[in-house]
Amino acid sequence: MGMFEELKEIVGEENFSDRAEELLVYSRDSSFFQETPICVVRPRTGDEVARIVRLASEKRVPIIPRGAGTNPCGEVVGRAIVLDLSGMNRIIEVNERDMYAVVEPGVVRDELNRALEAHNLFFPPDPASSRVATIGGMLANNSSGLHAVKYGTTQDYVLALEVVLPSGEVIETGTLARKSSSGYNLCRLFVGSEGTLGVITRATLRLLPIPEHRETVAFTIDSLDELGGVQEAVMALLPAAFEYMDEICLRVLAEKEGLKVGGGSGIIAVEFDGVRGEAEACAERLRGRFGEELSTGDIWEMRKTLVPLLATYSDKSPLAVTEDIGVPVSKAPDAIRRVKGIYGEAGFEVAVYGHLGDGNLHMRVFGEPTPELEQAADEVYSYVIDAGGTISSEHGIGRLRKKYMEAQHGPALELMKRIKQALDPEGIMNPGCML
Ligand SMILES: Cc1cc2nc3c(=O)[nH]c(=O)nc-3n(C[C@H](O)[C@H](O)[C@H](O)COP(=O)(O)OP(=O)(O)OC[C@H]3O[C@@H](n4cnc5c(N)ncnc54)[C@H](O)[C@@H]3O)c2cc1C
Questions:
Q1: Does the reported pTM lie above 0.90?
Q2: Which is the closest atom of ligand 1 to the Cα of 434?
């Protein structure tokens, strides 16, 4: 029996496809990479995943786990069997007293939180793509978002995982206990592994009670020089979210989203959550202290629509290069200046926005992908690494940032390759991604 026939036998005819039009859909993610897969399979159970991976291992055929395909780094694009896990989307258990949920990897993040509302619980990591991003994709990328400043990232909410290893063997790692000092932390190894070490088929996630109240305060700043002072004042109050958007973002939001603003060279938006009186008191401490307070519209909704809106700013395309850098928190104001300076000198305009509370800056560069742009990007990354930062805070490495891994990790990259070799000696799991 040929491999396609065997795959059909495992998942059923209806959950297998090698039709050109479907392969076209699966040939892309949210990056500019494109490659036609060998075929697509849509397993429904962990057992089906294990049988598929075992088959791929026997035949030495590459395999790529895929959630919603929202990653912007070419992580799910390649000549491989694409394992579409979006159909494995059951919430298996919600345990209110011990505050955890057991879920399959295809559960969409916002759907999980909608289901958790009835239990007054939530899963905090919140990528802007949360309406479509799956828990499997979030785990494999260690995703986070606006609230990472207070709540951390996906890795902080993993109690246990079920993983199909590249051999097809199934392991369970982690416990239901909140703390454990037993053995190597394999959960953390799989979190952020971008589908290169195995397929996560079940996750037990730590949950928190929904905060009683959220209070937002948003205001303009007149110059980048104010950012250090703003940062000090806001961080002392333990914000739940703390965002910066530059002058280009401000103009786009004023023009397209009706944000009423007299001027300014950027926007700061801060959220406090918790007990109502406390959240309100924290916000009150910031009111009237900096620039013009913004009161029109929902600044968080505006922040979520910012990326697509930036496409309307210029007749040049907003390119996602160096779009996810992270620096130590106190260096974020300097990093904004440096990024603008480096791209400016190379002749590119750049819009910068991001999480001022955790040092993670996003950006869109307006222009064409030229060698000058690549050189400027190299310069940004080398500044970030010298500053003790990261080439990616939350979006991942994929095929996009692979060439910077050596500069970022030095000899530790060799250890990562040895771990990959030990778990996946045939190199079938998402080859070409990350390492
Ligand atoms: C508009 C937009 C906004 C975004 N905003 C944010 C943001 O604010 N914060 C943030 O962190 N990210 C953000 N992202 C990036 C992306 O949405 C996240 O990384 C997301 O968690 C990916 O989920 P996904 O289901 O789309 O995964 P995919 O893109 O399908 O896959 C991502 C990675 O996970 C692996 N994978 C998927 N499922 C499994 C599994 N079950 N087992 C093993 N590996 C698996 C894949 O092989 C791949 O390497 C954004 C993307 C877009 C397009």
A1: yes
A2: 49
